[in-house]
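Weekly modeling sync, notes
Attendees: AB, CL, MP (scribe)

Item 1: holo prediction request
CL wants a bound-state model with guanosine-5'-triphosphate before deciding which constructs to order. AB pointed out that an apo prediction alone won't tell us much about the pocket. Agreed to run with the ligand included and paste results into these notes for async review.

Input as submitted:
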Amino acid sequence: MTKYHPYSKPDQVEALKFALLRRVAAYCMWLHAGLIGVFWHLEVNILALVNVGSVLMWYAGIKLIDASKPSIALRVFCLEVAIHATLVCAYLGMSLGFQYYLWTVSCLMLLDYQLRLRNAVIYSVVLITLFAVLELLFGDVAYQYRYQQLIPYVHFANVLICGIPMIYTISHIRKMTVQQRDKLEELAAHDPLTQMFNRRYARELITHAKENCISTHSPLCLVMADIDHFKKINDTFGHDKGDQILKSVAETIKAHIHPADIAVRWGGEEFLIVLAPCSSGEAMQRMEKLRRAVETTSFENDILKVTMSFGVANWDPSQTFEVVIQHADAALYDSKHSGRNRVTAAPILRVSEGVS
Ligand SMILES: Nc1nc2c(ncn2[C@@H]2O[C@H](COP(=O)(O)OP(=O)(O)OP(=O)(O)O)[C@@H](O)[C@H]2O)c(=O)[nH]1
């Protein structure tokens, strides 16, 4: 069951998870190989034989992971743990703590995203139920072999060996999940070309900026800015150069705004800038400075000159966002029709004429 295109790369968290699983499986295989000798020495030959089977199952699981079948491998490991825990508890009792491995694999089952959640939960519940059943069935079985004095230490070691892989795996998955969440948030909020906020995400920020300015009785201004004759730039220098210019202009805008301001790629070569808090007079001055910075940026060894037109509107708290955008758009339209490369204020404000 894949949500992705067949050619898409495997999910990063999945890849990491199965690399970890392979490493843990290799440790387990060697651990069981060691247990063959231990049980042989204790003269519990049946368990020595069981461990030969365990080694084969862990080896088969590793091969399944290598063959890109990690989900089946995980099920083989769970089966091995269930059989091993049951037989060890039946022959040696519960005091050694081999039953705790059921907890570890029941948690790992939940991390197999290729299993439907319902099935993963069922497998996990079965494993935990087996743990409870072992307690009921073999709670009274006493360990009767050599080295009885070592029982508390074996128990102690088993608790650690069961717990540490859980902590290790879950902490890694958590780290990867947080990284992926941050990346997704970044992608959802930004325009990929300019890394400015995109239109959808900016609406939320702008609403908060307006609320903040209302509560602090601060002025708020909204600016529509558009690159002049951008079609001609694309037609003359190519679309890739056009993209580079868009990026460069976006960087210039970002360098001219304050941390609380909001810069948005509003459309193709159109930008929205919310200056909050900012009076209309200050907004005019700051946009004039930005206009000059864009105009003086050098492109293609000065063969290419890029300019921008601006429309500045003061946002009266009684106005909706749509209304103030219309005012800024109308001012931008005036800038374009007065010769471009200038900053124009929406009605009530004065016009700052730039050098055309
Ligand atoms: N390179 C590039 N071009 C884009 C992008 N988005 C929109 N455009 C182009 O931007 C141009 C906008 O052209 P117009 O709306 O006619 O505006 P203009 O040529 O800038 O003219 P004025 O705004 O009147 O000065 C179109 O040719 C679009 O194809 C983009 O992401 N990259």
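Recorded for review: The radius of gyration is 33 Å.
Action items: CL to compare against the apo run; MP to circulate these notes.
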